[in-house]
Design brief:
alpha+beta, 7-stranded mixed β-sheet, binds 2'-deoxyguanosine-5'-triphosphate
């Protein structure tokens, strides 16, 4: 019997680095994973390239004009019967000061502090990759 295909949602996120720190945003109440600290980003819309999607998300969420750098790594995670494919990009240059127009709060975090924060399970299981991308 033919198995049904799983549904995959492609997501782009930015590693926004400055002075040895990285920018995390706290997911707002009322959404999935509320209160958890994530790398800013979101779902790719139909027809967008991953860097275009990340540029749009960073403008919508943080009000910055970002220049998207290299793809650092990708991972997958299953939320019930839906999977997310997360693509992590470097973001080294941007115009404007990031504002929490979507997140409850933004924080510049030292990479060493990330393991003790409340972060999505999708990221926790790839902490090694995240940490080495932040060096
Ligand atoms: P959802 O899950 O339908 O409530 O989606 P939204 O609109 O709240 O979330 P969005 O557009 O940020 O989609 C990102 C999905 O990827 C969401 O299911 C959470 C998951 N995710 C896991 N780790 C991260 C991360 O570090 N950054 C972001 N932006 N999303 C992450």
């Amino acid at each position: 019997m033919k198995q049904r295909r799983h549904i995959w949602i492609p997501v782009v996120t930015g590693l926004i680095k400055k002075n040895g720190k990285v920018l995390l945003g706290q997911r707002p109440p009322g959404n999935s994973l509320a209160g958890q600290w994530e790398f800013p980003g979101g779902k790719i819309e139909l027809g967008e390239s991953p860097p275009q999607a990340l540029k749009r998300e960073l403008f919508e969420e943080l009000e910055i004009e970002a220049e998207i750098g290299a793809l650092r790594f990708a991972n997958t995670h299953a939320y019930g019967d839906r999977g997310v494919l997360l693509l992590f990009f470097d973001v080294l240059f941007w115009k404007g000061e990031p504002k929490a127009s979507h997140h409850s709060e933004l924080k510049w975090v030292s990479p060493d502090d990330i393991p003790s924060m409340d972060i999505p399970e999708a990221n926790r299981k790839n902490l090694d990759l995240i940490m080495s991308s932040l060096k």
